[in-house]
Amino acid sequence: MHAQRGATLLEMMIAMALGLMVLSAVIVLYMQTARTFQQQHAMADLQVRGRMATQLLSEELRRTGFWGEIMTPVRDDSCRDMSRAIDIKCALPVWGGTAEQAKTLGLVPQSALKSDDHASRPAAVVAVRYADHGNGTCLTLDTSLDPPQLTLDQPCQGDWHYHAGIYYLRMVKDDYSGESVPALFVNQRSASGNYSSSEVARHVEALEVEWGRDDNADGSANQFYDSNAVAHWTAADWDRVVAARLYIVMRSEKMALQMPAREFLVAGRTLAFEADHYQRRLFVTTATLRNGRLRGANGL
C-alpha cells in the first residue's frame, strides 16, 4: 500500500512551482530573442536604405557636368540670372539649396519638405545634370548659335542623352505605422520633356549638403558651404564646385526597443532627436565632382 500511494499535495505544488519557473525562463528568453531579432532586423534595413540613398546621390554627383565630347559649353550673358541659368543652354552642371529656393526656380513641386516643416531639420535640394548613353532626350551642340549652346532634340538623333534629376524630401503616408513620414524623392526628366517624381528611400529625416568650391583652380576644395550659404551663388560659382559632402539621417522603419535621445552633428549643426522606439543613423560621405575638378585643375 505504501508503494502504490500517489504524490502528496506538497510534492505536486513543488513540481508545479519548478515547472512554472522553467516555463517563465523559456518565455523570457524567447521574448528577449524576439526583441533582439527585431532590433537587428530594423538596423539591417536602416543600413541598407541609408547606404543605397548615399551611394545613389554620390554616383549622381560624380557624373555632373559631363556633356559628352563637349567639355566646356559656352554661356551667354543671360545665364548670369539664376532663374534662367537652369535652362539647358546654360549647361549648369549642378545646383543645390533649400526647398524654398528650389520652388522659386520651379525645380521641385510645392509638396517638397521645407527645413522648418519637420522639427527644424535640414531638407536640402540637389539638382544634377549630365550626358549619358541611357534613355532620354538627345543632347547636341548647336553651332549655328553665337556662342554655340547645348540644345535638346526630340526625337533623339545623337549618341548622348540628357539626364536631369532633382532630389528632395517630402512627406508620404506610411502603411506600416499609419503616419506621415519624410522620404527622399527624385524629380526626373523623361524623354518627352516632362518631369515626374518617384520615391527613392523612406524615413529620411534630414538631408544636408555642403558644397566644396575651388577658388584657386588647383582641383581641390578650399572651403565647404551649406545649403543656406549658397543662396546667392551664380552659375560661375557652381562651375567651381569640385566636391559635395552629403549628410543623411535615416530612421528605422519598424519600431525596436526603447532608444535613448540622440544628437547628430550635421554640417556644423547639432540635430537632436527625442527618446522613442526608432533607431537612427547618420550617413556621411564626400563625393568628388570629377568633371568640375578636371576643368578647374586644367584652368578650363
From TrEMBL:
Superkingdom per UniProt: Bacteria
InterPro entries to which the protein is assigned, alphabetical: N_methyl_site (IPR012902), PilW (IPR032092)
Parts of the chain that traverse the membrane: 12-31
The keyword Transmembrane appears for this protein: yes
Keywords attached to this entry: Membrane, Transmembrane, Transmembrane helix
Designated name of the protein: Pilus assembly protein PilW
